[in-house]
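Budget justification, computational time. The allocation requested in the original proposal was used primarily to generate structure tokens for proteins on the priority list. As evidence of use, we reproduce two of the resulting records. The first is shown immediately below.
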Amino acid sequence: MTERRTVSSVTFAEAFVLDGADGVQPPGTYLIETVEEPLDSVSFLGFRRISTTITLPAVGTATLSRQVVAISPQELQTGSLNDDALANE
């Protein structure tokens, strides 16, 4: 079995700061991608998270560049991105 990818989005109502990214990120909807690999088990099917990333716009550049930054799933779940109105879509 190969790795499993899950894509979702999260909407921030206010600007937020993210570890691993420069500056303040503007409010908006962001793409979240999680990659998991299957566990080696004969009795049940399970997966282990390999990575979670968020796609950010390139703020302050004239090109249509984007940056992909590794993010902690706990950071998203606890709302520690300095946004009180975290809403998963």
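The second record produced under the same allocation is shown here.
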Amino acid sequence: MSSSNNDLWPDLPLAEWKDTYDTLHRWTQIVGKIRLALEPLINHWWNTTLYVKSWGITTYDMYYNDISFQMDFDFIDHVLLVHTNKGSTKTIALRPRSVSDFYHETMTILGDLEIYVPIWTTPV
């Protein structure tokens, strides 16, 4: 018996999770803008990509002064993780909250890690 690909995937109507989609879009813009601020420009900002992993998305390594760090959206454990080459890890819970609150907590934990990255806060 054969089945089509349509039988393998559940329906995912946008209307049921649009608020989550919009919020996650803004949160990934914050992380993407941090990457944009730290990376040298390469054609069309190709170097600012967020990469898909089996558990979420990641920036891979970024550099600030003598600190190498990466930011990972872990959609299994529902956290944003910030790992540094100095052995520090900070997390932010991915829970219902305003984009502003997420932005402020992200900048606070980066500051705790001695990473200071000003970004343009207007969504695009």
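A brief technical remark on that second record: Helices lie at 14-38, 99-112.
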